[in-house]
Design brief:
The chain is an alpha/beta fold. It is built from 14 helices and ten strands. Helix 3 packs across helix 4 and helix 3 packs antiparallel against helix 7. The longest helix is centred in the last third of the chain and has 23 residues. The two termini are 25 Å apart. The N terminus is likely disordered.
């Protein structure tokens, strides 16, 4: 617990100002929403539960999936992203993945982007009622980039562009990709944007084994094409093409004959381990005032279809942190 944030809140909350003096402004509350692929749906539950407790952020910063949920929340579209998340099935997720042969990523992301960014096209970050930033990484230099101005949809897309999976995004003459490579839980950005008290949400499950990456986490056993996918891509050959992709991808995810991990599992493990180590280092150097960690055992990084369970896990994680929230004065203790 950082003494600065705790003491500042105590000073502002006390009636200590002398007679006739104006009341002191309450401290600014920042929420850092971490990376974690599908597990990031639990950020929705965290924000819902904090809202129910009367905790309203002044600053929201997100990395990767945290930028998706955080950007929607800052724009007043949390209802929409929750409805979208709850509507997902394995088949629907797969039908929205437009496989790319560009060599810059397996998925171009056009169809998924259209779904995630519905209603955000004309929204600019600087016009949001809540201070917001999305964290991305610059290709080549490895610089950490804070996207605090410009189109919200572009910033979100750059922040979740997982290397090798989604194509990188070009913004202001720079190629950007997933911010989880440099700052998986962006506490430091919250403080830089003026937050006095920072609540951080980590869904990487540092120190715990991550559920093995399996074909059935991403790919349906039988591929069915939903009407919107047919309309968007034309009927000719799409079903056979998608079945072909599913077959090839299953081979990538299948365990080897000697019991060793699949190629895809190994890639995901490397990325998870990297995120874990970077997150630990960054959080040790700049710890949040409240650290919320959801219990996500058995939920994989690509279990996007399990939104209901993830959202409830986020709400429960906040309830477990009630004492800490009371300690800094963000939540009132019951009489």
């Amino acid at each position: 617990m950082r003494a600065f944030g705790r003491n500042l809140f105590r000073i502002s909350a006390e009636s200590g100002a002398g007679a006739g003096e104006p009341p002191r402004a309450r401290p600014k509350i920042g929420i850092a929403l971490g990376a974690g692929s599908a597990r990031g749906w639990c950020h929705i539950g965290v924000l819902r539960e904090l809202e129910a407790m009367g905790v309203k952020p002044d600053v929201i910063v997100g990395t990767s999936i945290g930028a998706v949920v955080g950007g929607c929340a800052a724009a007043g579209r949390l209802d929409e992203i929750e409805a979208f998340a709850r509507s997902l099935t394995r088949t629907r997720v797969f039908s929205m993945l437009d496989w790319s042969l560009s060599g810059r990523g397996l998925i171009s992301g056009g169809r998924l982007r259209a779904q995630l960014e519905t209603g955000l096209t004309d929204v600019r970050i600087e016009a949001l009622p809540v201070r917001f930033a999305a964290v991305a990484t610059e290709a080549g230099s490895g610089h950490e980039v804070w996207l605090t101005r410009g189109p919200l949809a572009d910033a979100i897309r750059a922040s979740y562009a997982l290397p090798g999976i989604f194509e990188p995004v070009r913004l202001d003459k720079r190629w950007l990709f997933d911010g989880a490579v440099v700052n998986p839980v962006p506490v430091s950005v919250c403080r830089a944007l003026g937050a006095d008290i920072v609540i951080a949400i980590n869904v990487i499950e540092a120190g715990r084994p991550i559920a093995a990456m399996r074909a059935d986490q991403l790919l349906p056993e039988t591929v069915a094409v939903e009407p919107e996918a047919m309309a968007a891509n034309g009927n000719g050959g799409i079903l056979s093409a998608m079945r072909g992709h599913a077959s090839g991808l299953r081979a990538m995810f299948r365990r080897r004959a000697d019991g060793g991990p699949s190629m895809a599992s190994l890639m995901i493990d490397v990325f998870n381990i990297t995120q874990d180590r970077i997150a630990r280092s960054r959080l040790a150097g700049d710890p949040p005032d409240i650290f919320i960690r959801a219990r996500l055992d058995g939920i994989g990084m690509f279990d996007f279809h399990r939104a209901a369970a993830l959202i409830e896990a986020g709400r429960e994680a906040v309830r477990r942190a009630t004492h800490e929230l009371e300690h800094v004065g963000l939540v009132q203790r019951p009489d």
